[in-house]
Amino acid sequence: PTPESEMLRSLVGSEMCIRDSPSTLKSKLSNHQLNLFNNKIILTGGFNGDEGKATNQVWEGLVTFQPELCINWTPLPSMLESRYGHVSVVLEDTLYCLGGYDGEKYLESVESFNYSTNKWQRCPDLYCTLEGAKGVFNPQSGEFYIIGGNRDGEESSKVSLFTPSSGMVDIEGYMGHVWHEARSEHVAVLL
């Protein structure tokens, strides 16, 4: 197991306190994304229930165990676009955020955050809008799969492979399986 998977495993089912930095993370967020990078939790976007709109905020959470499990949140530079219901993945030292909904329209945009430069940049758009899909990263192959979701406003049964160089490419089935029913807002786990 990787250090990130061990950290995530320790978070499940634990009593947890959340300590805020001077910039507080107190909003009621939903439909955000979480990724692990360098033993830190990265939270991107989401629907801000307090303000009733999508957010472009990005937070980094450092997990400590002093004396109980705590997450100390600090802000990172904001995304270029507000989004929720998006898909995100860390590939090498870059975080990618794909698609989502900005409160008015479904998005086909992709943006990336490079941890070395601490900056966001726009990437080529997806071939369709994407919202409510789930992503699964396979650490053994380094591949990132996008499953289902609303694509161009319709629930989809497609499975796609995302790479920074090729974007999102549909594939026939995943590991020999073909999805027969469309799905969105589901759960996807790589075992």
Outline the structure in words:
By secondary structure, this protein is mostly beta strands. The protein is 5% helix and 43% strand. The chain has 1 helix and 19 strands. The strands form 5 sheets. A 5-stranded mixed sheet has the order 1-8-7-4-3, covered by helices on one side. It has a 4-stranded antiparallel sheet with strand order 9-10-11-12, with no helix packed on it. Strands 14-15-18-19 form a 4-stranded antiparallel sheet, with no helix packed on it. A hairpin with a 2-residue loop joins strand 9 and strand 10. The protein is globular, with a radius of gyration of 17 Å. The chain starts with a helix and ends in a 20-residue tail after the last strand. The model is unreliable at 8-24 (pLDDT under 50).
